[in-house]
């Protein structure tokens, strides 16, 4: 796996994963949680603090870590992802989302 990607490719992938995938995942997670709680999607103004917070956190993490550390973390992430089978990925996805839905529903039941 180490020989598949060059240093520049790993740096580009790390940048993309940090600045696109992480904030997008946070926005989708907040939207799903809001939908499960209120049965409506959040407005732009409700999402704005999460977007600002996500990009602030990602930017600080990118600045604090060195470039070599970011590339090494990306290499480890790609190695770990390559070792997972497709069945395990599907099972992990189903279990994680099921747990998220149950926890959010439980919180709504307790508070509401």
Secondary-structure map:
Layout: H1 7-38, H2 44-64, H3 67-83, H4 86-111
Helix pairs in contact: 1-2, 1-3
Summarize this structure as a short list of keywords or feature phrases:
112 residues, single chain, mainly alpha
What features would you describe in this structure?
The chain has 112 residues and is mainly alpha-helical. It has 4 helices and no strands. The protein has helices spanning 7-38, 44-64, 67-83, 86-111. The radius of gyration is 17 Å and the shape is flat.
Low-confidence stretches: none
Q: What gross morphology would you assign?
A: flat
Average pLDDT taken over every residue: 88
Note the main sheet: none
Report the count of strand segments: 0
Q: Cα distance, first to last residue?
A: 50 Å
Number of distinct helices: 4
Helix fraction by DSSP (H/I, runs of at least 4) = over 70%
Element pattern in H and E: HHHH
User: From the alpha-carbon coordinates, what is the Rg to the nearest angstrom?
Assistant: 17 Å
Strand content: under 5%
Structural class by sheet pairing and helices: mainly alpha
């Amino acid at each position: 796996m180490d020989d598949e990607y060059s240093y520049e490719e790993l740096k580009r992938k790390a940048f993309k994963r940090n600045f696109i995938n992480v904030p997008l995942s946070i926005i989708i997670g907040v939207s799903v949680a809001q939908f499960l709680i209120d049965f409506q999607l959040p407005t732009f103004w409700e999402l704005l603090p999460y977007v600002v917070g996500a990009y602030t956190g990602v930017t600080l993490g990118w600045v604090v870590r060195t470039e070599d550390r970011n590339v090494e973390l990306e290499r480890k992430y790609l190695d770990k992802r390559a070792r997972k089978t497709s069945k395990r990925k599907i099972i992990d996805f189903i279990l994680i989302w099921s747990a998220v839905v149950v926890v959010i529903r439980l919180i709504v039941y307790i508070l509401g």
